[in-house]
Inverse folding.
């Protein structure tokens, strides 16, 4: 099968609740069903008061970019505040969580490698 280039509005991607999250939603913008052979591009939205509890992925890294808003993330036990324009790298195996303590929604992109070994270990 030949891989085809793709351009489409992100708003058309289905928005699904994040497992174990509160006020947290995920959209796959480009993924395996689009023919992407190596990576998955996702957009997360955290509503005010939204959160994704502590978890880790033993075999994959994350690269993230905050599109809008401000949130607190936990990285291996350390809290950090990130804002629109910040980039975040989370190595494989690092425990992390997200919390929107503001009164505005937060959106961030998250790129992960496409792999059969993808696993989420929930810690909370």
């Amino acid at each position: 099968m030949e891989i085809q280039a793709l351009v489409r509005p992100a708003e058309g991607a289905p928005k699904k609740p994040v497992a174990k999250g509160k006020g947290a939603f995920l959209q796959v913008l480009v993924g395996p069903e689009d023919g992407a052979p190596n990576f998955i591009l996702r957009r997360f939205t955290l509503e005010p008061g939204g959160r994704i509890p502590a978890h880790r992925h033993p075999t994959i890294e994350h690269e993230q970019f905050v599109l809008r808003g401000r949130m607190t993330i936990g990285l291996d036990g350390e809290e950090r505040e990130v804002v629109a324009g910040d980039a975040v790298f989370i190595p494989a195996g690092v425990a992390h969580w997200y919390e929107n303590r503001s009164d505005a929604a937060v959106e961030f992109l998250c790129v992960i490698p496409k792999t059969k070994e993808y696993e989420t270990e929930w810690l909370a």
Observations:
- Residues 15-84 form one domain.
- The mean pLDDT is 94.
- The first strand starts at residue 16 and ends at 17.
- The CA atoms of residues 17 and 122 lie 16 Å apart.
